[in-house]
Design a protein that fits this description.
Length: 222
């Protein structure tokens, strides 16, 4: 147990608490979290606050071999924070965090910084990029591709050969049929049924899902 890798959670909100529950304690030793909204020493559900985001360099010096995960649900914010952290500590490593109850095929790929939450299934041939969120109970079938900084809400189901672009989000309980392409920076509303390709920068919902409006880059969806 003494050779566990120290891991830092960046962010201290509700999603960070979920990420904490996903960490494999046989592999990682949680050292705390960074949060800009809470005072130093605050006890959060994600762990003790040991600094602000700007303190990453000092924390990395304190813990040899430190790895980290950005536990922020919004895709665009997560991408921004990752960029800021990498600028501060270029050699920082990112940990893929997979809940012990999640089922990830040995023939699937999960990128660095990605979180796979409790009860999720990621089937064979699927490639999940960097800093993706595969949320609670999501079922990702064979040969899917989730680009960097994309995400699912809880209970999402995708058929085979689905492709999800960078920064796109599939809402709670939505279903995406086989072979569909969701382009970058688009949002699928909760409980929707996606039966055709979705172009970039759209908000779509309904059964079946249809475009409702253009999505500005970085517009809130959570």
């Amino acid at each position: 147990m003494g050779d566990r890798t120290p891991i830092l959670i960046i962010g201290g909100g509700g999603h960070a608490a979920v990420v904490r529950d996903c960490i494999d304690r046989s592999r990682y030793r949680l050292v705390g979290c960074l949060d800009d909204a809470k005072p130093l020493g605050s006890k959060m559900a994600a762990g003790k606050v040991i600094g602000r985001f700007e303190d990453l360099s000092a924390v990395a010096l304190r813990y040899a071999g430190l790895t980290a995960v950005v536990a922020i649900g919004d895709n665009m914010t997560r991408r921004r924070i990752v960029g800021e952290m990498e600028a501060r500590v270029p050699r920082l490593t990112w940990a893929p965090v997979i809940h012990p109850s999640a089922i990830v095929s040995k023939n699937a790929e999960v990128g660095l910084g990605t979180v796979v939450v409790a009860g999720a299934i990621v089937n064979c041939g699927t490639r999940v990029g960097r800093h993706v969120i595969i949320n609670t109970g999501s079922i990702i079938d064979h040969d899917n591709m989730f680009d960097d900084f994309s995400s699912t809400g809880p209970g999402v189901v995708t058929g085979g050969n689905v492709s999800v672009g960078s920064l796109s989000h599939i809402g709670i309980g939505a279903t995406v049929l086989h072979g569909i392409r969701i382009s970058e920076n688009s949002v699928i509303g909760g409980q929707s049924l996606v039966d055709r390709d979705v172009q970039e920068n759209l908000v779509c919902f309904g059964v079946p899902a249809r475009p409702q409006r253009t999505r500005l880059m970085g517009a809130a969806y959570l």
